[in-house]
Amino acid sequence: MSGIIGHLTYAILGRQAVLEKAPQIAQLIDEHLDSYLAGAYFGADIMTLPGGRCIVCGGEYGYGGNHPDRCPEDHIPLHPYTLTFDGVSYRPQIIHRMFYGRSHLLFGWQREQAKFRLEWSQLPDYFEAVVADTFNFYRRPERRVAYVMGWISHVIGDALIKSIQPGLDLYLLNGTYTSQNRPIQDLFSFHHFGRTECQIDWANLMFNLTETPVESVQAHFMRLTQPCGQLAEKFPEGWLPQHKQLLYVVMGENRRYQKIRTPRLLQQLELDPITQSCDSELSRITGGLVFEEMMRMAEAAKFRQTLTYIGESVGKFLFSSYSKQ
Ligand SMILES: [Zn+2]
Ligand SMILES: [Zn+2]
């Protein structure tokens, strides 16, 4: 399933939430919307890589190193995907271990890096330093700032929906965020929020964000450069410049693989034009619910209010990160 629908939804809601209080932020986002949305996904989920590759048709499948046993096209066993850089091959699980905590800040740090984990209360300082540095480092910073703001929406959205930070009062099917209720969240966000409420052209938006450039500022906010700027003054620990080039290669792969995934995800989220039923695999994951039952359940659980809460939280962090500019 697709974390991307949820993260784009939080980002769009964050932009709506900041519109009245700080129209200049909303304007900057609107001028670089593709990069804002790219930051909202690729800015953090660096494990957006295949799981396996078919040596017959060349197809790549799976996510983050996990994959089906066989190619869905020709039923040949898949070979594990690896990314090779500078003579070293990396499985996506290794990339995840190396980088995930650095982009999510609050969780996901592995073993010896666990001491670099941040508290929620430290986020405003961290984000403000990154935005200030982005304005200072680049001659034309706006697109990069939009990307950074997208990444901020991801950090906040993930922390709330995964209950790393308390605040959400959501019980949908069997919990707040579970593998069984994710199809309900995605289908509601895709159809009700995205199409009905916001007239979003998901295909267009999801294609465009994969076309955005790899942003070097990501190595800065993941502390994978030489320590520099206000970020290094406020957060002197945890800098690891030797993996910067690897990150750039990973970010290119993230965009390349998402282009392959996007049509599959769009197809899976589409409803049957005649019966209005959803993909049978999505129904199976939820324990056999049909689309209408899922939407009724989301409404009863006040999922739309949950989205509003996440959006407003994102908006507050966007506002504070930019307040000294
Ligand atoms: Zn994430
Ligand atoms: Zn194949």
List the helices and strands and how they pair.
Layout: H1 3-19, H2 23-31, H3 33-41, E1 52-53, E2 60-61, E3 79-80, E4 83-85, E5 88-90, H4 92-104, H5 123-137, H6 142-161, H7 182-197, H8 202-210, H9 217-221, H10 229-234, H11 244-269, H12 280-285, H13 291-300, H14 303-322
Antiparallel strand pairs: 1-2, 1-3, 4-5
The structure holds zinc ion (2 copies).
Count of strand segments: 5
N- to C-terminal distance: 38 Å
Q: Tell me, what's the shape?
A: globular
Mean pLDDT: 97
Residue fraction in strands: under 5%
Report on the architecture of this protein:
- The model has no long low-confidence stretch (mean pLDDT 97).
- Strand 4 (83-85) and strand 5 (88-90) form a beta hairpin.
- This protein has one domain (3-52, 82-322).
- The protein contains 14 helices and 5 strands.
- The protein has helices spanning 3-19, 23-31, 33-41, 92-104, 123-137, 142-161, 182-197, 202-210, 217-221, 229-234, 244-269, 280-285, 291-300, 303-322; strands at 52-53, 60-61, 79-80, 83-85, 88-90.
- The protein has a 3-stranded antiparallel beta sheet.
- One zinc ion (ZN) is lined by residues 44-45, 104, 154, 158.
Outline of this structure?
This protein has 325 residues and is mainly alpha-helical. It has 14 helices and five strands.
Features:
single chain; 325 residues; mainly alpha; two-stranded antiparallel sheet; 14 helices; globular; binds zinc ion
